[in-house]
Amino acid sequence: MNAYARTGMPDEGRGRGPRGDRLRRDVTAVRDATRATSEINTPRDLMVLDLTSDDAEIVGVDWIGYLYRWDRLLGRLLSDPVQVHTRTVYAMLLTPDDHEIVIGGGEGVLRRWDRVNGTPLGEPLTGHQSRVRDLAVTRDGRELVSASQDGTVRRWDRAAGSPIGEPLRGHAGTVRAVALTVDEDVVVTAGQDGTVRRWNRSAGTPIGEPLLGHSGPVQALATAPDGRSVASGGRDGTVRRWDLGSGRPVGPPLVLDSSVWSLLLTSDGEIAAGSAHGVLHRWDRTGQRIGAPVAAHAWGVPSLAVTRDESELVTCGWDGRIRRWARVTGEPTRSARKETRIDLVPRLEITGTTPF
Fold first, then answer.
1. How far apart are CA 224 and CA 127, in angstroms?
2. Are 191 and 172 in contact (CB under 8 A)?
3. Residues 286, 300: contact at Cβ < 8 Å?
4. Are 62 and 42 in contact, with CB atoms under 8 Å apart?
């Protein structure tokens, strides 16, 4: 997933109310009952999740190619699952207008789907010779960038479904992650060969030397919203920060409990990373830890997202759960689930004398 995911604020108070409203004569009483949940159970383990631009919806794809949509606050499915691939899906993103979901999978093609209707759009984008491992999109939604196990990175005209320019070649082996800088002039890639590379997006040419430091494959990337740095996460269990201009490391490596599976940066400089052991780690811009590592999931955190106002992190794990976390406290967010029952209050009319 790309760096500073799209974001929006959880409305904790909405839907909450007293157990029973006062009953008033000649009116309808509405009684609200709420029960809280800090997680969503998924039918199968997810590979990737993303948020719509208004943060109302979580979109996720599982490891056998089924796509799901959930109401973020209530945690309920919004539609039936749709099979978008017949092989493992490694990459998924939402276009900036939220209209399309782009999928990259095991057979090396990119497919586009209508988010609401779950119907395919256009022809598959073909060109890669092996699995698509990661995706990025420009802010205007016109250009897609894909990283593949065939060792190349390709740019695509989304509307035309055709490649733009020549593939970017330089990694020895699988390109596992791709991200765009905030000005979209630079494509950043990370590979099985342990390197992080920078490319001029329009020219398709490398910028400077590869960034070296990881002792194994680099599996996650996140570019900073200020456009000055990039973070990389490796199988060696470290997150490394790099100055995009000079290519030099920024500070010492940040150490996790196990391999880095997912990574994001926020506008205030926070670094969040999910590990292969299901642990969520957080640091501030200086590299100081924010709280203790959190056992977010029983196993593996393959994807992270953040809301538009950056108040909440959303994680998925290979334990069949999606969880929401308040960034300030690091605690699970309590989602309000509202169940409303309408009771008609009978009107009692008495005439004449009464025994009481």
1. 30
2. yes
3. no
4. yes
Nearest CA among 238, 211, 232 for reference residue 220: 232
Please state, rounded to an integer, the average pLDDT across all residues of the chain: 86
What is the per-residue DSSP string for 176-219? Answer: EEEEE-TTSSEEEEEETTS-EEEEETTTTEEEEEEE---SS-EE
CA 109, CA 122: separation in Å to the nearest integer?
A: 13
Task: With beta carbons less than 8 A apart as the criterion, state whether 279 and 294 touch.
Answer: yes
191 in Cβ contact with 174 (< 8 Å): yes
Q: Given the structure tokens 């119907």, which residue do they identify?
A: 119
Structure token pair of residue 182 = 């905030």
pLDDT in tens, 102-161: 999 888 999 999 999 999 999 999 999 999 999 999 999 999 999 999 999 999 999 999
CA 37 to the chain's CA centroid = 20
The alpha carbon torsion through 324, 327, 333, 335 (nearest 10 deg) reads -80
State the number of CA atoms in the 13 A half-sphere of 160 facing the CB: 7
Burial string for 175-193 (b: 16+ CB within 10 Å, else e) reads: bbbbbbbeebebbbbbbbb
DSSP-assigned states of every residue in 101-161:
EEEEETTS-EEEEETTT--EEEEEE---SS-EEEEEE-TTS-EEEEEETTSEEEEEETTTT
The token pair at 78 is 């919004």
**What pLDDT digit, counting tens, does each position of 177-193 carry?**
999 999 999 999 999 99
